[in-house]
């Protein structure tokens, strides 16, 4: 298969590039923003026409949730228009597009896990622009997979695990939000899920295109996630002492963008369709040293 990866230096982009580099059956073109700015339709068309991918995986996004409230135009350019150009180009060359989306398309007030057919109601610009991207991808390309995920962490890039380890090494106590719940998701597991789906498409299997949820289990609060991160770090001798952790409410930690209090995504559909298991984030934390860079 011929795979074009966008946003190749992001958390998921890096994992995709690393994993596909080991796959002898994949010819990969992994590009960063400098080589392929997805908001530039001419560049998108030129790259796709020349490389002729069978699969496009869009790992590029504007992911700064709070900054998005001010960078409205930029958010829509990257999260809606870019995916639209990629999907349109994919359709022209007969490729499938695998696009990543987010739990932030939901309001977060549901009791229980969100399934793919649940009504969306994003609360901020990031979520709204990502939802607009989903719609554009679905409209532009018949062969599309939209993988909604949540609470992503990987060895590369910025994420909660890295922030905790950094702050924990300099502070005695940390306040962590305890009333938002979700599934931490390892970037390597997202990449693996996307590659498994890509292979099924490439070998001509009949699959159901559309939206799938993929995230980690068990579901926890940010506070519980932090507890596990520090327990693992202490257990493995990465840090001597666990900082004091205080569970605080969302109200006590105001941010420019409103976050969903419930980000729990059901992974039943992807499991039934592709036998892909939820991300085991605790296992991914075992190599805690890898998140200190
Ligand atoms: N992070 C999370 O917790 C989370 C949660 C739910 C869903 N998601 C979704 O998961 C996907 C991957 O997220 P991630 O955490 O891997 O994101 P990330 O680490 O922020 O990476 C995004 C990448 O996209 C690149 N990019 C930005 N604008 C671009 C453009 N115009 N053209 C090409 N590349 C561009 C960025 O490059 P620069 O560094 O140069 O800006 C960066 O390398 C995204 O679709 C995101 O919405 C993430």
Structural summary, described in words:
With 293 residues, this protein is of the alpha/beta class. Helices cover 39% and strands 18% of the residues. It has ten helices and 14 strands. Helix 1 links the parallel strand 1 and strand 2 (27-31). Helix 2 (41-51) runs parallel beside helix 4, helix 4 packs parallel to helix 5 (125-140) and helix 6 (160-168) crosses helix 8. Bound molecules: NADP nicotinamide-adenine-dinucleotide phosphate. The site of NADP nicotinamide-adenine-dinucleotide phosphate (NAP) has 28 residues, from helix 1, helix 4 and strand 4.
Summarize the helices and strands and which ones pair or pack.
Layout: E1 2-6, H1 11-21, E2 27-31, H2 41-51, E3 55-58, H3 65-68, H4 72-93, E4 96-102, H5 125-140, E5 144-149, E6 152-153, H6 160-168, E7 173-177, E8 181-182, E9 185-186, H7 187-202, E10 210-213, E11 216-217, E12 220-221, H8 222-235, E13 244-248, H9 268-274, E14 279-280, H10 281-285
Helix pairs in contact: 1-7, 2-4, 4-5, 6-8
Bound molecules: NADP nicotinamide-adenine-dinucleotide phosphate.
Residues 6-7, 9-13, 33, 36-39, 59-63, 78, 82, 100, 102-103, 130, 149-152, 157 line the site of NADP nicotinamide-adenine-dinucleotide phosphate.
Short overview:
This protein is an alpha/beta fold and 293 residues long. Helix content is 39%, strand content 18%. Residues 6-7, 9-13, 33, 36-39, 59-63, 78, 82, 100, 102-103, 130, 149-152, 157 line the site of NADP nicotinamide-adenine-dinucleotide phosphate.
The biggest beta sheet, please? 6 strands, parallel
Radius of gyration: 19 Å
Structural class: alpha/beta
Number of helices in the DSSP assignment: 10
Bound molecules: NADP nicotinamide-adenine-dinucleotide phosphate
Distance between the termini: 33 Å
Helical content class? 25-40%
Q: Count of DSSP E strands?
A: 14
The fraction of residues assigned to DSSP E strands is 15-25%
Shape descriptor: globular
> What's the overall average pLDDT, rounded?
96
Q: Determine the oligomeric state from the structure.
A: single chain
| Low-confidence spans | none
Which H/E pattern describes the elements? Answer: EHEHEHHEHEEHEEEHEEEHEHEH
Q: What topology, given as strand order, has the largest sheet?
A: 2-1-3-4-5-10
């Amino acid at each position: 298969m011929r795979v074009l990866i966008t946003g190749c230096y992001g958390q998921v982009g890096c994992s995709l590039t690393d994993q596909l580099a080991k796959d002898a059956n994949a010819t990969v073109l992994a590009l960063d923003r400098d080589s392929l700015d997805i908001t530039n339709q001419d560049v998108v068309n030129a790259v796709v026409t020349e490389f002729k991918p069978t699969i496009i995986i869009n790992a590029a996004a504007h992911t700064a949730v709070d900054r998005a409230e001010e960078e409205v135009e930029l958010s829509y350019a990257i999260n809606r228009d870019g995916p639209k150009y990629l999907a349109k180009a994919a359709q022209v060359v007969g490729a499938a597009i695998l696009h990543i989306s987010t739990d932030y398309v939901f309001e977060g007030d549901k009791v229980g896990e969100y399934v793919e057919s649940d009504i969306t109601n994003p609360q901020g610009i990031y979520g709204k622009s990502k939802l607009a991207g989903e719609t554009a991808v679905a409209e532009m390309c018949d062969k599309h997979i939209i993988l909604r995920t949540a609470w992503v962490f990987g060895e590369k890039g910025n994420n909660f695990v890295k922030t905790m380890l950094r702050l924990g090494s300099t502070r005695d106590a940390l306040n962590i939000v305890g009333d938002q719940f979700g599934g931490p998701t390892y970037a390597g597991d997202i990449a693996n899920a996307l590659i498994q789906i890509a292979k099924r498409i490439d070998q001509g299997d009949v699959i159901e295109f559309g939206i799938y949820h993929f995230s980690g289990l068990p579901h926890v609060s940010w506070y519980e996630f932090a507890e596990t991160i520090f327990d693992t770090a202490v257990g493995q001798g990465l840090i001597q002492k666990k900082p004091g952790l205080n569970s605080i409410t969302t109200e006590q930690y105001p941010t420019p963008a409103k976050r969903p209090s419930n980000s729990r995504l059901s992974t039943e559909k992807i499991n039934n369709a592709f036998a892909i298991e939820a991300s085991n984030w605790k296992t991914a934390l075992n190599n805690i040293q890898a998140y200190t860079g």
